[in-house]
Amino acid sequence: MKNPNNILDQFEPIDLKEMDRVKLMNRTDTKFIFTNKQFEMVMNEVRDQYRVLEINGKRLSQYKTLYYDTKNLSLYAQHHMGKLNRYKIRHRTYVESETGFLEVKFKNNKGRTIKKRINELQPPILWEGENRVFLNKTQPYDPNTLIPAIWVNYSRYTLVHKTELERLTIDVNLEFVNNEFTKKLDGLVIAEVKQEKKKSTAFLKMMKKHHIREGSISKYCMGIALTCEGIKKNNFKKKLLTLKHIIEHDTITNTK
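Above: the chain's sequence. Below: its structure in token form.
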């Protein structure tokens, strides 16, 4: 992806300590998928309303996320069926800050996302001790059935609204890695608005102005659907076709 630092350098910075006011562990999420060109246009129009997270002089942060699922991908199947009250289980590494968390995300039938996590520097290999206790308390699956499913890696800009309780994440340079494939989506931008309750703010108004529609497919489900053969993906077909329309075919690369 073209580096948009020339745009984001115009934003005022915010540090990690100041980010505490927008942890939003219980929130609503609204996602959008669009192109690099649209990204640059929208950022220009909202730069006076948001600040950008800066860590050690860097505004683009690397995230490495390992998702866990059952052998038959039960968590993916729940998403594919559109089931409410569903879970994601993952370990996320924040490369720049050298921190890691084991996380459970729960999406309830009221459209709210509730995230719980514990400090864990490295992705767990065995479920034992504190990790096992945490999983037993936060989700319904037997930890013994949960195995690594896919790595989802990307770079992220994090923006915080200057006055509203809102965090905006912009993910670029997506990479999905499983045992068989590495798939890169270099021409795709995924934005996610995180709020305590849905409210029309500057970014959402720009999405409406430029006719960029909300798109709800998760990065986990996207990665599984794009890299795993022989799984059900009919219910994601329309969303996957939308991805193809957003980016050029030659920006999608596969490595055996």
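Residues 249-256 have pLDDT under 50 and may be disordered.
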